[in-house]
Design a protein that fits this description.
The chain has about 350 residues and is α/β, with parallel strands linked by helices. The protein has twelve helices and twelve strands. The strands form two sheets. The chain has a ten-stranded mixed beta sheet with strand order 2-1-3-12-11-4-5-10-8-9, sandwiched between helices. Strands 6-7 form a two-stranded antiparallel ribbon. β1, α1 (about 15-30) and β2 form a beta-alpha-beta unit. The longest helix has 19 residues, at about 15-30. Bound molecules: 3-isopropylmalic acid and magnesium ion. 3-isopropylmalic acid (IPM) binds near residues 89, 93 and 245.
Length: about 350
């Protein structure tokens, strides 16, 4: 198969972890006889520095024509001035919106080798396997916003349409059917009108089209508790943009390290965008200390969801497991003082794929 990837390394540790994912994809192409093409484009802070724009048109044009996008991370203190004209994050939000990537899939699985790295008790997190569907192109992130002339009152509107709710609920329900057949919809319907629309629309979709899927609704504040007290009870979770942002950061602590979790952002058509959940970690940038496994696992999701290469995706995931089984750890997940660097970890996974 021929496939084209655009690499969006971004800022901080982004370039290091993206390189590791690239190297693993090269190993996949070699092993399974595919032809993968790669080009690299600036996004985020580095693009502000180069073009004065966190999402230059040339980057967007390259992305539109690719099969899959692998993003590192954006942002850093250099671009944090609250009065700045634009921010690196605007590049990421722009990509999501421009490419119509309305569904953000964030799997939260506890790797058994790393269970001791979790801040939670082992008996709570063993067997945790949750797939979050976070709505990604609507809600309060993209609603109207304003600041009054005197700078003393600000507004950000949370708005959803029936169509926006239906499409993400359907995608999540489909995924539930292929997993443990349970869907949890999270909202704040006891207070917010927009949540009451989510509740009505998802109840109808589930009743009319997915009556076979076990469906429940949970308020977002309660969900924040249940995620810690009984995380094994959840299979697929669907929720709005802001709630999903917060709950997935909370959920990312279940397996212990943010450095292990990939995410996929999908729309109605290619390309999909694949990235680690973690940020740009400017404090360790360029020091070969970052954990590349989240980005490598994101590349596996790209193989699965954008290219339909299930065997290859599973091979990458198995390679990650075998490297963890061998005891190799990056600093963030090392129990002892001994650890390997980003590059060595990436090389080990690429070698395991090729083996
Ligand atoms: C995420 C991040 C982004 C978000 C930021 C960087 C804009 O936190 O992908 O979860 O809020 O969506
Ligand atoms: Mg976030």
């Amino acid at each position: 198969m021929k496939a084209s990837f655009v690499l969006l390394p971004g800022d901080g540790i982004g370039p290091e972890v993206t390189k590791a994912a690239h190297d693993v994809l090269v190993a996949v192409a070699r092993k399974f006889d595919h032809e993968f093409e790669f080009e690299s484009r600036p996004v985020g802070g580095i693009a502000i520095d180069e073009f004065g724009d966190p999402l230059p048109q040339s980057t967007l044009d390259a992305c539109v024509n690719a099969d899959a996008l692998i993003l590192g991370a954006v942002g850093g203190p250099k671009w944090d001035d609250p009065n700045a004209k634009t921010r690196p994050e605007a590049g990421l939000l722009g990509l999501r919106k421009e490419l119509g990537l309305f569904a953000n899939l964030r799997p939260i699985t506890a790797h058994r080798q790393l269970i001791d790295a979790s801040p939670l008790r082992k008996d709570l997190i063993e067997g945790v396997d949750i797939l979050f569907f976070r709505e990604l192109t609507g809600g309060i992130y993209f609603g109207e916003s304003s600041l009054s002339d005197d700078g003393r009152v600000a507004t950000s509107v949370m708005q959803y349409s029936v169509g926006e709710i239906e499409r993400i609920v359907r995608m999540a329900a489909e995924a539930a059917r292929n997993r443990r057949n349970k869907l949890t919809m999270v909202d704040k319907a006891n207070v917010l009108e927009v949540s009451r629309l989510w509740r009505r629309v998802s109840a109808r979709v589930m009743e009319e089209e997915y009556a076979d899927v076990d469906y429940e609704v949970v308020l977002v504040d309660a969900m924040a508790m249940h995620l810690i007290s009984r995380p094994r009870d959840f299979d697929v979770v669907v929720t709005a943009n802001l709630f999903g942002d917060i709950l997935t950061d909370e959920g990312s602590m279940l397996p212990g390290s943010l450095g292990m979790l990939p995410s996929a952002s999908l729309g109605d058509k290619p390309p999909g965008l694949y990235e680690p959940i973690h940020g740009s970690a400017p404090d360790i940038a360029g020091e070969d200390l970052a954990n590349p496994l989240a980005t490598i696992l994101a590349a596996a999701m790209a193989l699965r969801h954008s290219l339909g290469l299930e065997t290859e995706a599973a091979a990458v995931e198995a390679a990650v497991e075998s490297v963890l089984d061998s005891g190799m750890r990056t600093k963030d997940i090392a129990a002892s003082g001994k650890f390997f660097g980003t590059q060595a970890m990436g090389d080990a996974v690429a070698a395991a794929v090729g083996a």
